[in-house]
Write a structure and sequence with these properties.
about 300 residues, alpha+beta, four-stranded parallel sheet
Length: about 300
């Protein structure tokens, strides 16, 4: 077990049930020598707490919450020099828990915590987005642009639903109300092209939204970004594609392009709505049209399953 452990808890995760779960986990923590706790109280608080933990000499930071909590903790850790970044542990207490699935940690919270405290870390890739204002955002699982971003915005407006059902409802709403493809100029490692896209998702892990297998072949330690693009198509076709995304077989449609790269630059003819690991980066009213995304191989030490 690392010498000094900080647990960052989002008590609002899992529809406010995370606090109760955390309380039940205290015996596990005591069995492994104890840990210090910090709870988040405002958006991006976990980012500040994670960075502070590294500056204070913690060997490990455990993110206890959903994908959003892990995302914020990763962004805090990545602000530190590589030789001062604590090991990351993940205890999934959220709705989707897609990153926990990608790295293979147990989805039962007590088993995940014991594994984080006793397991061995290994390097995992991290994605980095830089927008045309020079802002940087790290992501551990997926970055969604266009349709995917709007789905995330809409899912946050469905407080009575959770998990996969919440995302599926938001998907249906977006197909019906926001069928608005953008003309994109794209440049990857060795190719430039232009096409009208409804959706572009850049993936470090295979799934998002609690079970949509957007990039079935993506692995968080393969050193590349996987992407899935859906070109301009009818609403009817989108309704046909969505069930295939659940199974990871959407690549059979001619409107879908699956590929990989290490870096991609995107320029669109209209504002782009973006999420990073399910956290809204740009929303309605934003005017962001250009961004670059790259993979940082082995950037973070994480206890995996």
């Amino acid at each position: 077990m690392p010498r000094k452990v900080k647990i960052i808890l989002n008590p609002m995760a899992d529809m406010h049930n995370a606090w109760r779960v955390a309380n039940d986990l205290r015996p596990v923590i005591n069995d492994y020598g104890g840990a210090d706790w910090s709870g988040t109280v405002y958006p991006t608080h976990a980012t500040a707490l994670a960075k502070q933990a590294g500056e204070q000499g913690y060997d490990m930071v455990i993110a206890m919450g959903g994908d959003g909590t892990v995302h914020e903790v990763v962004n805090g850790l990545m602000q530190l020099p590589a030789d001062r970044r604590p090991i990351l542990g993940v205890v999934p207490v959220g709705s989707g828990n897609d990153f926990a699935h990608a790295i293979g940690v147990p989805l039962r919270s007590d088993l995940a915590l014991a594994h984080a405290l006793d397991g061995k870390p290994s390097p995992v890739d991290i994605g980095l987005m830089t927008d045309d204002h020079g802002r940087k955002e790290y992501f551990d699982n997926t970055l969604g642009i266009g349709f995917d971003g709007v789905v995330t915005i809409r899912s946050h407006k469905l407080p009575l639903l959770r998990g996969f059902l919440m995302y599926l409802t938001a998907v249906i709403q977006t197909i019906l109300l926001n069928h608005d493809p953008a003309l994109m100029q794209l440049e990857t490692d060795g190719r430039k092209w232009e096409q009208r896209n409804l959706m572009l998702v850049l993936c470090n892990g295979p799934r998002e939204g609690g079970g949509f297998l957007v990039a079935p072949d993506a692995k968080p330690d393969d050193g590349i970004l996987h992407y899935a693009m859906i070109e301009m198509c009818s609403r009817f076709t989108m309704f046909r594609i969505v069930p295939e995304v659940m199974k990871g077989t959407h690549g059979r449609f001619k409107q879908v392009t699956l590929g990989s790269c290490k870096k991609i630059s995107i320029s669109a003819d209209r504002p782009q709505y973006i999420h990073a690991d399910g956290e809204i980066y740009t929303s309605f009213g934003s005017n962001l049209r250009k961004l670059t995304v790259e993979i940082l191989p082995g950037a973070l030490q994480i206890v995996r399953g």
